[in-house]
Write a structure and sequence with these properties.
The protein has helices at 16-43, 52-79, 84-110, 119-143. By secondary structure, it is mainly alpha-helical. The protein has one domain (16-149). Helix 1 (16-43) runs antiparallel to helix 2, helix 1 runs antiparallel to helix 4 (119-143) and helix 3 (84-110) runs antiparallel to helix 4 (119-143). The chain is flat, with a radius of gyration of 19 Å.
């Protein structure tokens, strides 16, 4: 007789906690696929190094990595919640982190940079931070908070669409 697959004992399939975990897992899988696709596009690009298309591909890849990392971090803190009060407390903490990061990005985007600083490092930093901001917003939207209602501050350094 062939061995059987292990049984996973979970809560009821329609339970809110189980649906929440399924939504987190599905979104994590989608973000992972996006990061893998953008990484593949970045590694195989034929654009000359330093061109606008190359920098845009690189920034999109770094933003997807930042988004995935921030979503993983936020979702692990939300996944351990067993009660709505715990979920609300963790969501409050993530909301504070979101707005702190949002203000840091806006503040650093407004200040002038020295001429000798590499433009690539600055672009890499901001692309990653914007990705982190989106990853936290993704986790919060699954948890029931819509922080995307607050638009980003004016960022003069952001040239990518």
């Amino acid at each position: 007789m062939a061995p059987r697959a292990p049984l996973l004992h979970r809560s009821r399939p329609g339970a809110p906690a189980e649906r929440f975990r399924v939504r987190l897992d599905e979104h994590h899988l989608a973000l992972t696929r996006t990061a893998l696709d953008r990484g593949r596009n970045y590694r195989t690009t034929k654009d000359p190094r330093g061109s606008d298309a190359y920098l845009e591909t690189r920034a999109r890849f770094l933003a997807s990595l930042g988004r995935l990392a921030a979503f993983e971090e936020a979702s692990t803190s939300l996944m351990v919640c067993r009660f709505n009060t715990q979920l609300a407390a963790h969501s409050d903490d993530l909301t504070r982190q979101y707005f702190v990061l949002r203000s840091v990005i806006g503040r650093h985007g407004q200040e002038p940079r020295p001429v000798d600083e590499s433009g690539w490092r600055r672009l890499d930093y901001f692309a990653t931070q914007l990705g982190r901001l989106e990853g936290i917003a993704d986790a919060l939207s699954i948890a029931g908070r819509n922080v995307r209602l607050f638009p980003l501050p004016a960022l003069p350094w952001l040239q990518l669409t």
